Amino acid sequence: KRMRGATDLEKHLELLVVENERLKQELKACKTSLLQEALREEVSRWESQTRPRQRRLAELEQQVLEKASRVETLSRQLEESKRHAGEMQRQLEESKCQQGEVEQQLSIRLRDCEEEMARQAARPHQVKYVTEIVEVESSGSQQAVAEAQAKSAALQEQLSLQRQLLRELETQLHESQRTSTQLRAQILVYEGEMERAQGQLEAEMQNLEEEKNRVIEDAFIRAESEMKAVHENLAGVRMNLLTLQPALRTLTCDYNCLKRQVQDFPFMLEKAMTEAKQEICQVIGEVSSANQELLRKYKREMNLRKKCHNELVRLKGNIRVFCRVRPVCRGEHDSAENMVSFDPDDDALLYLSNKGKLMTFELDKVFHPQATQEGVFQEVQSLVTSCIDGFNVCIFAYGQTGSGKTYTMEGVAKDPGINQRALRLLFSEVTEKAPDWDFKITVSMVEIYNETLRNLLGDNQGEKLDIKMNPDGSGQLYVPGLTEFTVQSPEDINRVFELGHMNRATACTNLNEHSSRSHALLIITVAGVNSSTGHRTQGKLNLVDLAGSERIAKSGAEGSRLREAQCINKSLSALGDVINALRSRHSHVPFRNSRLTYLLSDSLSGDSKTLMMVQVSPLVCNMSESVCSLKFAQRVRTIELGNATRRQWENSSTTSSPTHDSKLRPILHLHITTF
Is Chloroplast included in the keywords of this UniProt record (predicted)? Predict the structure, then answer.
């Protein structure tokens, strides 16, 4: 408490010192700043008040300029009218002069003619002779008189025209004089308005100057009043400072005492913090160790649960079902949406968002779109290697067209699928077991195209094949005449696959550019002999790439493609019937309804380890097909085929029947009687 009190006193002391300095600065700047601020405010207010007057003044000046321009224009028009009137007056005078000259000439001619006629009339005594002469002369005179009269008429007409022109010019002159008079009157009016505007402008300027002086005087008076109030406040503050100084000295003494008392406080605080950190670290370490132990136990329990589940599946003989979601391909981004989601803690759950509803599917394993071929194969390689021990194994890919079945099973040259990786693994395992065991690996490939078996490795593709019961008494099915190749190296595998791919039926549809139009089965037989005991084993690995289920309207199949699609859908429908019969434990399972189900009967009847790889497309346009595939996969997952048997012989005789590690399930006997 003392330390906190000392800190408060110190802060209060600092505040008082700062306040004292601030008041000193205000005292120095108050005389000028307050006056300047007041003057600025008054000038600003005066400017705001005089802005309308300034705008009015500018308007008046603009009007004066406009009227001056108008006066100048009228003056120019007046000068032009005067010049035009003078020109018309000059033309009128010239016309009058010309008319006078013409009249004078006509008068002279007329007077001469009259004098001549008078002289002729003064000769009466020469009657006959003169009469003739007069007649002759009168004829000439008459002609002259007629000409003179014609000229006089022309001159009279010209004179009338000149008089009419003169009257028009006089009319124009009067009009110009009237216009000039009007312009002079307008000029006088504008000059009067300019004088009035100038007077108003001078009056406004005088009023503004008086208002400015008055505002400055008021601001000065107000600033002096405020300065007086500030001085009074400053005096009060000084009195307060004088009162607080003794208290400040007391607080300073108390602060120094407390400061001496807490000199060792940082060391005590550091020691306490060090001890607290050590305790916190110890507690955190204990909690972290407990969490690590819990996490380890959780992972152990999860692994144990999966192991128990897998063992339970193995004992029951359930078909294991994996799901692989293919990634979105190039060109599909416009139609792709996030309809598929995954559980971050459980790799056996898959979620589909269908029409606003979230559908959950539980399988044995779900592969993300980012899953690699190697990662997928690591999950199935234990099944693959069990065929070396004499078990029959079947892995088949199921899904709609374009969902990635062929890619998962066959892959590409740089990234092969399950088929080629399985053979490579078998070669590796066989090599490790040598020289105690001698193994022989044979490969055959068969295609079911339009419900017809085709030998993909044979020379005669038109040869008809059929499914028969193996005469060795094992109860297994086989295809007589099916070509088998013994493979001993990866090069042999590549040659066999190349031949099989070349003969397989594919075509382009709306859903897939290279759609498989048939079911392809890769049959791998592994026969082994123990060189020391003569113990023999024989296992078979069926790798099946089913043709894709498709809707004919969506795939756009026509002609032969239409028949292929119908056969594919029929065989897959038969597979669904078999699955439903096995799931319901019917006494009769319809394996013979299709060549596909008949050929897979060994893998679906309890004498085989079977895995289904269901392929799913992530596109929204394929939602209905994806839901159907996943529902079918869930039905398959519930089927119990029974424990798989191991085919082995105790001696080297090739004619003896194989012995089994366990008895066949009743469903196997039912299946055999069906054949």
Answer: no
If asked whether residues 154 and 225 sit together in one domain, one would say yes
547: left (phi over 0), alpha (psi -120 to 50) or beta: beta
> Which phi and psi (to 5°) does residue 255 adopt?
-65, -45
> How far is residue 386's CA from residue 382's CA, in Å, rounded to a whole number?
6
Among residues 267, 87, 244, 93, which one has the least CA distance to residue 172?
87
Would the annotation count 404 as a binding residue?
A: yes
Residue from 454, 450, 452 nearest 559 by CA: 450
Average pLDDT over residues 371-384: 92
Three-class SS of residue 369?
coil
Per the CB < 8 A criterion, the answer to whether 612 and 500 are in contact is no
473 has binding-site annotation: no
The pLDDT value given to residue 10: 62
Burial class for 339, CB neighbours closer than 10 Å (0-12, 13-18, 19+): middle
Q: How far apart are CA 667 and CA 675, in angstroms?
A: 13
Q: What is the mean pLDDT of residues 247-269?
A: 78
Q: What is the b/e burial string over 145-155, where b = at least 16 CB atoms within 10 angstroms of the residue's CB?
A: beebeeebeeb
Q: Which of 257-271, 362-376, 402-416, 456-470 bottoms out in mean pLDDT, i.e. has the lowest? A: 257-271
pLDDT digits (tens, 9 = 90+) for 340-354: 899 888 888 999 988
Q: SS3 for 601?
A: helix
Give the pTM: 0.53
Q: Is the pLDDT of residue 129 over 50?
A: no
Q: Is 292 labelled as part of a ligand binding site?
A: no
Looking at residue 189, which CATH number applies to its domain?
A: 1.10.287
Q: Are 646 and 391 in contact (CB under 8 A)?
A: yes
Query: Hey, is 410 helix, strand or coil?
Result: coil
Asked if residue 620 belongs to a domain, the reply is no
| Residue at 198: amino acid letter | Q
Q: Indicate if the pLDDT at residue 564 is higher than 60.
A: yes
The total domain count for the chain is 3
How far lies 640's CA from each of 304, 513, 644, 674, in Å?
22, 38, 11, 19
Q: Are residues 518 and 463 in the same domain?
A: yes
Is 411 annotated among the ligand-binding residues? no
Residue 399 annotated in ligand binding: yes
